[in-house]
Amino acid sequence: MHRRTPMIVATVAVLTLATVAPATAEKNLVEFGGGVHSSRVYTVVNYDSPSDSAATQVRDLRYGRASDGAFVGDWDGDGIDTLMVRRGREYFVTNDPDPTTGADYVIRYGDADDRTYVGDWDGDGTDTLAVKRGRAWYITNESRPTRGADYVIRYGNHWDAPRVGDWDGDGTDTLAVIREGRFFVTNETDPTRGADYDFRYGNAGEWVEVGDWDGDGTDTVAVVRMGEDEAVLVAQDPGSANLRIDLDLSHMDDSRETWEYVVFTGDWDGDGIDTYGYRLGF
């Protein structure tokens, strides 16, 4: 799944590993924005490569309502991530990278109070929905589901903070959960045992994003740091260092604080590399 100014300056820096706490109210995991101070403007940023990440394009998208919760995914399998917004149990999907009209179609799935997640659960290149109730996940592989879940899995605990990604590069998204500062990852689409492995990353209270930052087909996590002195995304790398990307905030409202924005990720141009975007989110 592609979660996938001046300028963005990319450097490589070693990150001391520490505890990562779940984001408040699961903000910025999959569904983002939609609060009383949210906006219908989504700023997305492209750059050529993670090693030379000066912004090549920064553009504002307008879609849905300010009160909508939003998701990013590849809904039609063309390799480009686009937006979907949620109103209760209805999801308004656009396949247009720069939407100028309403939704291409509307789907209904789950209940209005479900926690909803997005992934390519069967490896067909198209992202679909899953809803979480307690520790049960109700997964559909249909882009336009007309019935209930295709199957149900159980993983983690009710209070875990989940992430979705292709952790082993096999083309299929699976789950990870954050519990007491530790990530527990499974590569099974229908896990019948515990995690395949676990790790720690980042600092307590930081937002965590998932993406394929270098285009190698494997997703890793990144932490987002938005403060007075820095606005960066620090992405996990299998090597000894981590990719640090200073965020291009040129399209932010000068009257708002950086912490009022949520950062999200996606592949906006279909090049196989996930970059980022941001939205006024609270």
Automatic annotation (TrEMBL):
Alphabetic keyword roster: Signal
InterPro entries: Integrin_alpha_N
Leader sequence segment: 1-25
UniProt superkingdom: Bacteria
UniProt-recorded name of the protein: VCBS repeat protein
